[in-house]
Amino acid sequence: GTGAGGTGAGDRPPACHRSALPTGSVLGLGMAAYFAWNTYIALHADDLGMDNAAGIFVVYSVVPLPARLAGAKVPERIGLVRSVRIAAAGVAVGLAITAAWAAPAGGYVGTVVRSLALACAYPALTALTLQATRPSERTSGLSTFTMFFEVGSGLAGLAVGPVAEAAGRRA
Q: How many CB atoms sit inside 10 A of residue 27's CB?
């Protein structure tokens, strides 16, 4: 027997699902940017003349909620791949605004742009992962996809340290 939702003894899903590697790689890069930003913005807030980055973190926490609710159907309407491409461009633009606009407003505007972009990215990437896997292998596919969260966060740590030190910050 296969049990509830099982695939049968001879049809075991792979531990690392190949069809989730492309979307997982995009997620990993996004997570690297996310974790690098979390480190960077705390340091950058001081450069912007802010006492701390608390307000920016609040903006980042609040903006995605209404964006996901209001835009829940947008990825399917415009296409999942197109949605991911637009989101990736939005993340890059948000990071560039934050880095280039040397004022508190730059930190906030860049964060809003980046937050809106990320709110579109995750649902589209998850949907693409589900589309690429057979129903009997979705858990394996999602497991592979989400493991890139940790991969990306680890890579961010490796990348941010040398960059911070090169910029005269203690990593």
A: 25
